[in-house]
Design goal:
Elements: H1 4-18, E1 24-28, E2 31-35, H2 40-56, E3 62-65, E4 69-72, E5 82-84, E6 88-92, E7 102-103, E8 110-115, H3 120-133, E9 138-143, E10 148-156, E11 159-167, E12 171-173, E13 181-183
Parallel strand pairs: 4-7, 8-9
Antiparallel strand pairs: 1-2, 1-5, 3-6, 4-5, 6-8, 9-10, 10-11, 12-13
Length: 187
Amino acid sequence: MATAESGVGQAFESFSAAAPEGWRVELVEREICVSPPGNGEHAEIVSELAGQVMDRRNDLSLRPCTGIGLKIPEVLGVPGAGHVLPDLTVAPKSSFANEDVWQNPSAVLLVAEVASAGTAERDRRKKPCGYARAGIPVCLLIDGEKGEVVVHFEPSDDAYGCSARYKWGLDVPLPEPLGFELDAAGF
């Protein structure tokens, strides 16, 4: 029996297969989203963030990764809730040592999104809902339009119980299980 959700899944697979190299095709809260590659500023921020994670982490097994697709759990029993590509994912070494295109997010400790004009609404509101539902402990939003870094933590159901906002230029403490600070002046 065909359902609307299987239609969305089939359309998602078709868009994914047809997307030019470097384009991002995601299924965010049952909506297919297609984005062009990030610009140089986006790449610089992601690179700076990855470098700081490597330099400041307390747990040397943690690895920052880009290009990791995550399977997000369903919404209210409706299948096909999400396939997302965070700008940065932090997880212990070998968490993704398999051939799966879409990974189980259970080992992920932090996801980071760098909001741009084209992705801001999705990065600020929709993706954190899915990340919370997946139980990812920390969701970091680097928002250039607002000049701030938002740290979401304490996931529960479809939301994070706590959020802290920091203006660019301030140190950004990351809660456990990370437990170190980022220097937002680098963003």
